[in-house]
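Handoff note, outgoing to incoming analyst
You'll be picking up this chain. Sequence as last confirmed:
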Amino acid sequence: MCNANFVLQISEIKTAGIPDTDLSSVGVVSYGDFTIEVIDPVSDYLELMEVCSEILGSNTLFLFH
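Most recent structure output, in case you need it:
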């Protein structure tokens, strides 16, 4: 459930002095001590749903609100 009264405030923005990184390619890129990991959230979600359907049975209907 979403609380409409919740407000997130950004108090500080920090930047890293690194080259532009291709965020469309899944993988890990390192620049010295700084590491960026780009993930595919859709494939992670599908994998989770496969595990849930195996546990609950293939005739289970998932409803999300």
